């Protein structure tokens, strides 16, 4: 059976990724204003989602139902600039993880179409 990203990187690295990612996001002038609710809740939801997204347990769905990420992001104006800022923060965070370069690249390749799918404005 093929290993998932979650198997390859582990729960600790998902938690580390989310922490480092949001340290960058909350400082980013382009996307920080999109994150207005409880920062700890935002981070916990992202940890749960990424665990599931990368092939781990279905933590997010178990609590919140189907992710429906595009629908959940519709109230927030997300353009190409915001998607690129999100990807930049994610890339920087992924690059700090103590995992193989190939896994880092593969993770980003998986995230790019997901981020671009969230774009809902010109």
TrEMBL record:
GO terms for molecular function: heme binding; metal ion binding; oxygen binding; oxygen carrier activity. InterPro entries: GlbO/GLB3-like (IPR044203), Globin-like_sf (IPR009050), Globin/Proto (IPR012292), Hemoglobin_trunc (IPR001486). Keywords: Heme, Iron, Metal-binding, Transport. The keyword Cytoplasm does not apply. Gene3D superfamilies: Globins. Pfam families: Bac_globin. Belongs to the truncated hemoglobin family. Group II subfamily. PANTHER family: TWO-ON-TWO HEMOGLOBIN-3 (PTHR47366). This is Hemin transporter. It comes from Chryseotalea sanaruensis.
